[in-house]
Amino acid sequence: MPFEPDSLPHEVELPNRKFGKLPNRTLLSASNRIKCILSIDYGTTYTGISYVFSNESELNDIATVQTWPGDGRDRDFEWKTPTVIAYGSENNFQGVKWGFMVEPGMKSYSWTKLLLDKNAPKGKYDDPTLTNIVRKGMMELPKGKSAQQVCEDYLREVRNFVFARLDKENGADFMKLTPMECWITVPATWLDEAQDATREAAKGAGFASRSMDSINVIPEPEAAAICALKKLTAPGAPDSLKAGEDIMICDCGGGTVDLTTYSVTATYPLLDFEELVVGEGGKCGATYIDRNLHTLMTTRFGESFKKLDPKKTGPGSKFMQSFERVKRDFPKGFDKEKGIGPLKLVSKNPAHYDDDDGTVKLSLADMQSLFDPVISQVIALVKAQVQEASKLNHDIDRIVLVGGFGDSPYLFEKLGAWCKTNGGIKLICPPAPQAAIARGAALRGLAGTAPSLKKQRRHYGYEVGRTFDEGVDDATKAYIDPFLDQEDQRRIQEMVWKIAKGENVTTKTVRSQSLYFTHKEGSSSFTQTVELYSCNLDTAPLSVEHERVVQVGEIKVDYSEVDLNTLESTYKDGKKCYKMEFDVRIEFGAVKGILVFSSWIGKRQVGTASLSFAK
């Protein structure tokens, strides 16, 4: 039936750890038990982990994993491990290999994270070639597995490695009795469905698998902001941040670029900051550069390149590993050209290929052509945020680059030049920008640091019934409501948006919608589905059929505990029908980082309400 609006006691022995402030052999009761706070920065190309115990207090107390398994590391210490997995069933080994353990030539899977948000409408700043990627190993999936399942398989290996490290450092008995609070990061622009899929993949992998554990979601730029702002407001920080400054966090990762701008309202005694404007982002991260390289290779070498086995040209291949080293440092150490490879190609142009050692030659102009389209998208995103802030009479004082791509010297050079000619904005890239997101997410759990106010990124609402307007509405879409007077029974469905894009959101932001439906006597079903929609346009349309209106999912309401005899009733087609009136409430600023639902009759919460997504 269509819906109607009413109107709009374990004790724990602590180990003696070599870092931190854990007291030696201290006993804590369950009520004040120390927690392990662990963050997972699951990225398109690389994944990072940080953790800290709840009796710590500072950013410097947070440990970040830097020693990862595998022989593929360039250095002994790496802030992250590659987000890539290879299955033994498709290779010549048992089990799975992941991260640095995946070797060139293995059948492997990477960039899978981007497939979690495959249902999102194409964004203004997305890489235009992204939807055309069909090359094996690049956004490909194993037969019989979904993107969420591949992510879960990968995260399970990460979880097993990290948990073994925690057991080694702290003692397995201690960790068995220590609650764990997990924070997993997601792009701020992602649909709720993709955020939920990431969270569910982490849960399926074994994170927060015990009843005493919990798992929360935090947007990547928010996590990065927490880390950056804490550093910039720490006592003795050089060029410290002051109250009243506006700062933009530019999170440039492998798959996505996310921007959020904040106003710092206080730095002492506690840091307080608010989102200034609605954040923006796009799927235009460093993998965009890799796709540009493949396009260039196809243009220059044609079938000679295209027919090569993807194991030789895809992510993790020797060819792409050599390009990654050039890309990471560009333009540092770049004179006239660089050679990448090896690849066996057929070419008659010695300017592009060295047949003796099998290397592809890339000139300075070539490298710029690979980078510049991506840099242009990043600058366009920055420019848009600056303009939105200007509408509120705010000038951006600083931009902080974080993320793996955020460490690019070429990006810093080009964006820095733009900043100088656009108000002299300070551009900074802090040490270890790759670790900022994981460390910030851990600090969120440790200290509770978070923006006191956020900006809603999209509209949310329901399709509900209103009086049919003769001569205006489509009669074929009208329906009859038996609980209304005979002459007013015809109704039509229309969108009612309960929260608008750009609205202020705090931890107390709740929106309620009063609805009703009919329950026929004798029916064995005591659940009802309410469809929730969203739209990221500045002005939301009234019709659910608009191409930019997205079904978020279905809210399932269980009303089995409701006494039907207390409800208004009528008869339709000879059957008694009960009028089930209830409110659906959504918490938009819940600490756990996801939408939280509940169903109410009057002032009493009844049954349950949960959101499910189409698979």
Automatic annotation (TrEMBL):
Molecular function GO labels: ATP binding; ATP-dependent protein folding chaperone
Keywords from the named record: ATP-binding, Nucleotide-binding
Classification via InterPro entries: ATPase_NBD, Hsp_70_fam
Protein's UniProt name: Actin-like ATPase domain-containing protein
Highest taxon listed in the record's lineage: Eukaryota
Organism, scientific name: Mollisia scopiformis
